[in-house]
User: What shape does this take?
Amino acid sequence: MITAAPALTPEKAVLPLPADRWQSHWRQAIRSPDELLEALGLDGQALGVSAEALAQFALRVPRSFVARMRHGDPADPLLRQVLPIDAEMRIVPGFSFDAVGDGAAKKATGVIQKYRGRALLVTTGSCAINCRYCFRRHFDYAGENAAKGGWQEAVAAIAADPGIDEVILSGGDPLSLNTSKLAELTQALAAIPHIKRLRIHSRLPVVLPERVDDALVQWLAGLPWPVAFVLHANHANEFNAQVDAVLARIRGTGAQLLNQAVLLRGVNDDLDALAALSERSFAAGVMPYYLYQLDKVQGAAHFEVSDAQALALHAGLMARLSGYLVPKLVREIAGDTSKRPL
Assistant: This one.
């Protein structure tokens, strides 16, 4: 079992980081399976690397994330999340292109509303990393982007509905936008009196920690609402000292940090891995929030874990860990009024 890292000391938590050039780190991301596997000393043919899967959904993985992968280990849990393989090309009954009903929940261009009081903005189609299990891997980002027209249609749709009190920035990954673009959006939202909370869903602080620069921290600290910042880490090995440091900076803005993970075969489908993830995220100041059953999107069936195994693992977590370290085990069902507990 991977033990939890020690909590950050207050002194370390407030140390300023060097000026970041996150766009440069983004541009240097690995996009070739051959380059990725060469860096790890692995054979692509033995792993079933697929040119067809790569053409359907591109590989993108930051080099700092690759540095956390185990050299020479074809079963590395971080590698499995990003490597395009033959299994993605199997057509599996019950798996679709819109697994969670985004299309039916459209409220306006780039605005999705599935649940009472909450509206999700598809801020961008860009991500710093392409996760092979992504439920929006087939999403029409070109047609459904809230940033079109300077956010006007999206902001107007939210302003016209006084029942919406929480806005969720999603994508893609909202932090792939320049901070000035994010500020433009939140300034427009700030004029809507019925918004009470802002939620930000982002994987960038984990996979591209360089993104958390001074400008981003200042923007977060200046937001006029309570902020829930939801990370996405699936394995304890995704955390390191650099990630810890940038999460401390985010916490310093007053944002509440939560983590949601997806239960993935070959990545975290054992009790030790899930317990280590909860302990390691909490050590970094992040509360475990959701553990999702896989969204049934075409191309991701090889990651599926049965409900029986998921329930057994969750029961094991409850028996092993304090209650606050146990995430809610849920799945998303199109048309439901909330996430469905298992």
